[in-house]
Design brief:
This protein is mostly helical. It has 3 helices and no strands.
């Protein structure tokens, strides 16, 4: 019985490692397609973590059948806050005419 439990734990650990490896490969392919380059290995590791979380969200959302699909794009390695600051906030400024004081 103990061997079965150990084997199951080992399989789960190995499965997770393969998923991580697979996600790293998907991230590399995405980087090549988007043209993304990071300044160092630390940033790349952080962006892989964010990318993984976003891909898992996208896949879960799509499986739920909401009537439309989410997909990967140039923002997949950004947090929601980063996305908001670089995409949504500038558009709101443009629409409202708000801008930084020039003097």
């Amino acid at each position: 019985m103990v061997l079965i439990i150990l084997a199951a734990c080992s399989f789960e650990s190995m499965s997770r490692s393969l998923q991580d490896l697979s996600m790293a490969k998907r991230h590399e392919q995405w980087m090549a397609r988007i043209g993304r380059v990071y300044k160092d290995a630390s940033e790349k590791a952080q962006r892989l973590k964010i990318f993984t979380e976003n891909v898992e969200y996208i896949e879960a959302f799509n499986k739920a059948g909401h009537g439309f699909w989410l997909g990967l794009n140039e923002f997949t390695d950004q947090t929601p806050d980063e996305f908001s600051k670089c995409v949504i906030a500038p558009e709101e400024e443009e629409q409202t005419g708000a801008s930084s004081p020039s003097n």
